[in-house]
Amino acid sequence: xxxxxxxxxxxxxxxxxxxxxxxxxxxxxxxxxxxxxxxx
Length: 40
Hints:
Blueprint: H1 5-39
């Protein structure tokens, strides 16, 4: 039983979006931490 490719697309797109948001948030937090360390 093979699933059609379209059925799996939304989950992959959501996962890709979540990973992108997580990476962006992590980079922002790392940048803020580095900035705070440099200032103090």
